[in-house]
């Protein structure tokens, strides 16, 4: 951890703005790891600059810096934490290679959102969370992905810190990498994978129905064999399911649910003939686009309740499952945009819209029942 004097002297006096002085004090106090009081920040600045260097009404100044710091206590004494966006800003201002070591047993964000594509998936998430104005870019050029953050307010009035990004390409490998990096750098309490998928025809699915993987299956995991001149594939999957609590809460939304009627009413384009529904069950994943219904039929020989196929969820679930403590909980919300052999783009925007709206509504309504918080 860099000491305060080194941070201050890294720039010329004319660049030692109030923002720089405050962010530097927070970093040197270890506020990435644990929240610190206003008095501790004041004392650190006093030792370096004397009374003249302490910003007037420091608490008010810190409140204005919500893009870079977070208030951690409602009572007294007021405590503050330096968030990743604040560290990124301090790095840019100082030119120093400041480490981002954080306490491995504390979450920094509440929700992490991952999409495979900017359009139509992440753009639908942005629309469902208040639009572009609600999101702020995190300036961190060291990272491969572009991260944005916003806040959500639950039905009960709790404010959630949200971090979101897209993977560098479609597929399991890219999904696993982006999930791992998001977890390691931002430590969300819950990961949401939001996007589109191909559905199976059974279960009277429609365009826009939401598929939640429980479990997610890497259906290409197995052994290719040849016996008596016949080529065959012996599956050896390692399915990953939801934690029981998340599964139980999701089951409340099976069948007819008013949330889908409300979502449907907000769409200004074509809609399916019936109101959409939630489907909870095995969702296949692999690094391939399926445009052959025979593939679905073959998969259903091993997974008769298969609800669909897509290209990312297994990588997301596996990364969350094998993440260091504190592990995030995870859910994938994928909405049906086609039915494998019936490929087309006409329902992709609607599917992305439904998946995003339902996922955000679900989190707002059920947060307190999904995650234990202090």
List the helices and strands and how they pair.
Blueprint: H1 4-8, H2 18-28, E1 36-37, H3 38-49, H4 58-64, E2 69-71, E3 79-82, H5 84-94, E4 109-115, H6 118-128, E5 136-138, E6 147-153, E7 159-166, H7 172-186, E8 188-199, E9 210-218, E10 222-227, E11 230-235, H8 244-250, H9 258-265, E12 278-285, H10 293-302, E13 308-310, H11 313-321, E14 329-338, H12 348-370
Parallel strand pairs: 4-7, 4-8, 8-14, 9-12, 12-13
Antiparallel strand pairs: 1-3, 2-3, 5-6, 6-7, 8-13, 9-14, 10-11
Helix pairs in contact: 2-5, 6-12, 7-11, 9-12
Structural descriptors:
374 residues; alpha/beta; Arc Repressor Mutant, subunit A; Rossmann fold; 2 domains; 5-stranded mixed β-barrel; 3-stranded antiparallel sheet; 12 helices
Describe it:
34% of the residues lie in helices and 24% in strands. The protein has 374 residues and is of the alpha/beta class. The protein is elongated, with a radius of gyration of 23 Å. The protein has two domains: 4-94, Winged helix-like DNA-binding domain superfamily/Winged helix DNA-binding domain (Arc Repressor Mutant, subunit A, Orthogonal Bundle); 109-370, 3-Layer(aba) Sandwich (Rossmann fold). α7 (172-186) runs parallel beside α11. It has a five-stranded mixed beta barrel with strand order 8-13-12-9-14, surrounded by five helices. It has a three-stranded antiparallel β-sheet with strand order 1-3-2. A two-stranded antiparallel sheet has the order 10-11.
């Amino acid at each position: 951890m860099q000491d305060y004097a080194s941070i201050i002297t890294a720039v010329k006096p004319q660049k030692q703005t109030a923002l720089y002085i405050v962010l530097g004090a927070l970093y040197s106090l270890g506020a990435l790891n644990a929240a610190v009081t206003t008095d501790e920040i004041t004392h650190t600045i006093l030792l370096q600059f004397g009374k003249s260097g302490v910003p007037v009404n420091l608490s008010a100044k810190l409140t204005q810096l919500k893009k870079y710091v977070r208030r951690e206590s409602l009572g007294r004494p007021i405590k503050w934490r330096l968030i990743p966006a604040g560290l990124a800003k301090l790095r840019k201002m100082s030119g120093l290679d400041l480490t981002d070591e954080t306490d491995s047993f504390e979450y920094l964000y509440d929700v992490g959102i991952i999409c495979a594509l900017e359009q139509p998936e992440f753009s639908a998430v942005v629309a469902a969370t208040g639009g572009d104005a609600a999101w702020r870019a995190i300036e961190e050029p060291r990272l491969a992905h572009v991260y944005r953050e916003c806040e959500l307010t639950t039905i009960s009035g709790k404010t959630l810190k949200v971090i979101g990004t897209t993977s560098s390409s479609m597929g399991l490998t890219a999904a696993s990498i982006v999930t791992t990096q998001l977890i390691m750098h931002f430590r969300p309490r819950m990961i949401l994978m939001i996007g589109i998928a191909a559905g199976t025809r059974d279960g009277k699915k429609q365009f826009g129905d939401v598929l939640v993987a429980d479990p997610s299956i890497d259906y290409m995991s197995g052994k290719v064999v040849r016996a008596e001149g016949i080529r065959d594939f012996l599956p050896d999957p390692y399915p990953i399911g939801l934690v029981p609590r998340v599964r139980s809460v999701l089951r409340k939304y099976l069948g007819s649910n008013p949330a889908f009627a409300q979502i449907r009413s907000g769409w200004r384009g074509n809609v399916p003939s019936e109101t959409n529904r939630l489907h909870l069950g095995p969702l296949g994943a692999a690094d391939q686009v399926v445009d052959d219904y025979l593939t679905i039929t073959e998969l259903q020989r091993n997974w008769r309740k298969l609800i669909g196929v897509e290209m990312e969820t297994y990588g997301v679930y596996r990364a969350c499952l094998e993440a260091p403590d504190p592990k995030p909980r995870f859910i994938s919300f994928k909405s049906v945009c086609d039915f494998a052999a019936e490929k087309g783009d006409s329902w992709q925007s609607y599917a992305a819209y439904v998946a995003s709206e339902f996922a955000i509504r679900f989190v707002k309504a059920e947060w307190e029942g999904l995650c234990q918080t202090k």
